[in-house]
Amino acid sequence: MHFSTLAATAFATTALASPQWGGPHWGGPGGNWGPHENHQCISQQQATDLVNTAITVFNHLPTQDGANATAQALLTDDFGEYSDSIKSLQGLNLTGTGQTATKQEWIQGIVYRGPPTTGIQSLYVSPAGCNKVVWYFEFDAVARATYRVRGFNLIGVVQKAGKWQIDELDLEFNSIAWGLDDGEIAAACGIAQAMGELSGATGPPA
C-alpha cells in the first residue's frame, strides 16, 4: 500500500485555488514563484500553490492524462516517498530508509491504479526553512470513509529550471483509520470484516 496506491474539497480553513502548470503560479508570465522574484527560499504562496497542485494530481484533474503530465513536471526524477505509516500497513519491517515509492511508482499508484481521490482538506500549509514545506492534511473519502484520516507530509523541494519541484515526501498519518477504511487491517489480521463491524463475544473463550 502506498499513499500513492491508496488512491489520495472543501477546505477546513480557506479554499485553495488549483493553479495550472505553466500558468502564473508556476513561473509563467507574471508568475509569483520563479527565480525572477529573486527568492532564495520557498514562500508561503509558493508552498500553497505547490500543495494545491499536488492535490489536483490526486483528483485526476483536469483529466487522468493531464494529472500524469502535471505529476511528471512536479516531481524531480530522483523523487522518493518515505513513510513508516505505509510500511506498517504493508506489514513490513520498519528498517532501512523507509522508502515506499519512486517517482514513477508514485505516479502510477496515484493516477492510474485507482479512482480519483477526493475530499482532501488542507488544514495547514507552511514553509519550513528554505527547502521544506509542512502540509497538515485530512482525507475524508478513503474507501468506505468511515473514519477521517489526518496526517503530516514534510515535503522536500528544490528549484530547477525556474520552478519549484518536489524531490521528497516524508509522510506519516493515522494508518489505523486508513486501514479500517480500506480493509487493509482486516486483510492483514485474516478477518472478514473491519474491527468496527465485528460482533460476538467480547472476552476470551472460556
Automatic annotation (TrEMBL):
Record flagged with keyword Signal: yes
All residue ranges annotated as the NTF2-like domain in the record: 40-184
Entry keyword set: Signal
Top-level division of the source organism's lineage: Eukaryota
Any single Pfam family the record assigns to this protein: NTF2_7
InterPro entries the UniProt entry points to: NTF2-like_dom_7
Signal peptide extent: 1-17
Name of this chain's protein: NTF2-like domain-containing protein
Originating species: Recurvomyces mirabilis
Organismal lineage: Eukaryota, Fungi, Dikarya, Ascomycota, Pezizomycotina
